[in-house]
Specification:
There is one protein chain. By secondary structure, the chain is α/β, with parallel strands linked by helices. It folds into three domains: 124 residues, no CATH class; 230 residues, Type I PLP-dependent aspartate aminotransferase-like (Major domain) (Aspartate Aminotransferase, domain 2); 97 residues, Aspartate Aminotransferase, domain 1. It contains 17 helices and 17 strands. It is globular. The protein starts with a helix and ends with a helix.
Amino acid sequence: MAALRLASKRVLTSAAKLQLRSVAATNSSLFVARAASTSSLPAEARAEFVKEARLPSFDPPADSQSAALVSQHLPYMVATYARPPQVFVKGDGCYLYDIENRRYIDFNAGIAVNALGHNDAHLCNLIYDQAKQLIHVSNLYHNPWTGALSQLLVERTKEMGGFHNASRAFICNSGSEANEAAIKFARKVGKAVGGEKKVGIVSFENSFHGRTMGSLSATPNKKYQAPFGPMVPGFSYGKYNDVEGINALVTEETCGVIVEPIQGEGGVWTGSEVFLTKLRKRCTEVGAVLIYDEIQCGVGRTGKLWAHQFLPKEAHPDILTMAKALGNGFPIGATMVNEWVAEKIVTGDHGTTFGGNPLASRVGHYVFERIAKPEFLAAVEEKSKVFVKHLNVLKAKYPEVITEIRGKGLILGAQLDRDPTALIKECRERGLLLITAGTNVVRFVPPLVIEESVIEEGMQILDEALAAFVKK
């Protein structure tokens, strides 16, 4: 009987291989349909699908299925992004697969979003289960999950040493929306404590807070702002980590200061303890709201639940904004406040149609609860050590290219002495996805669940890509 089972297994494997090769040869629409849904193949065949995926040696050419699909769709899309030619149709853990079934290691996690990786089984089942029950009911009514998520955010944050006087949360759909709420709340508080002239908002060079008009006005980047000026009035900008300039920057007419404890888009720059502590002290002196934008650096990304946990309690904020990893790819954001802020926000001051819907809130509840565990966060710190070790080896190997490694946890940056665009392409064509930040910085924000073996594999590809980059 054992021999018969073994023979059957071999037949199944061969049949599975034939079926998989047939799938790979079909047209793009059939491939997308198969890859985007749960495969009807047996488990052994699905494993073979992953095994047979090849690391690419080039971007999809002009006569590829990817190019054909992109050419079909681009005429109907507003051209807000310049994308490489890959068309991704499937994710599995820390890997992505394109329409030609080529495998890529994902070191950017959807820009620090997919903290639990792709296709997390429990999360997928949870979404299906909640979708069968209730997706949306609007904020005109209560549902079980908006309040449960708000309670979890506040209580677990305080339990784990973050935002010590957090009190309430507003659930929305994105990081930009979370920051818009924070800016509006700061304006409301400012007028309540200082009158109609207390409306100034301070932010910092190299920051990124979003692309809606309020959050864009807090993002002092001419490339982003110039086409849409004039900006919302009342914003001023300071130099990040400039302790001496704080008193002149934050005045009696300032109602709010918004700052990232670690600037992600700006180049992975960390705010110093003395800078952020002085900023907190100055906000208290003039009655201004201190907003920490942890949309990219929060929710476990640094190896702490929140990036500001590296600071003393005296530097904690009045408002904390989050998004990205909170939904692991499902759109959600949140603005958490202390009672000094909350007591000034009343019915009708702010709202959202989709924000806090039962599906998004249940997703956020699961993701946050899973990440906000000491053992999970400790593992992030250990993986960070592996990354930093490899990056420092590469820095020593390519000193003419890599000048600095910086960041915390799994939000890391390698400062290059030249434009990294060609390096990103060399990596992508070898099966590694990376993104840039700031000026000539390669950013590393992989899934927080990444395995050490995948880190090793990705770093080997990066080494090979650097060699080609230097040679060219």
